[in-house]
Design goal:
- The chain has a domain at about 40-95.
- The chain is α+β, with helices and mostly antiparallel strands and about 100 residues long.
- It contains four helices and two strands.
- The chain has helices spanning about 40-50, 55-65, 75-80, 90-95; strands at about 10, 15-20.
- It has a two-stranded antiparallel sheet.
- The longest helix has 11 residues, at about 40-50.
Length: about 100
């Protein structure tokens, strides 16, 4: 009627769940290479702000003060205060 795709057995130790043997193949190697054409402090702050979905500056400033965000390169409270982005995305996202 049809072709067998998978075969397996029920294991009594796991509440009779089905188990199948998978071919153990080496996982593919994935390489990620990111480049930045500009790494000025203003560009780093603008990138981090956009990566965080362009929050209102006061919200991001407060998060930086409370050290909620510590793992974004180039995004510090001092850098954000000096290079606060004035993005269109923030303005459009907060029209009330």
């Amino acid at each position: 009627m049809g072709d067998t795709i998978l075969t397996g057995h029920r294991d009594p130790n796991t509440n009779k769940l089905w188990e199948i043997d998978l071919d153990h193949q080496a996982p593919e190697q994935a390489n990620l290479m990111a480049t930045a054409s500009s790494t000025t402090p203003a560009d780093m702050v603008a990138f981090a702000h956009a990566a965080l979905f362009s929050p209102v500056p006061s919200t991001l400033r407060e998060a930086l003060k409370k050290k909620y965000i510590i793992n974004m390169p180039g995004l510090t409270l001092e850098a954000f205060n000096k290079h606060t982005p004035n993005s269109v995305a923030t303005a459009k996202g907060h029209l009330n």
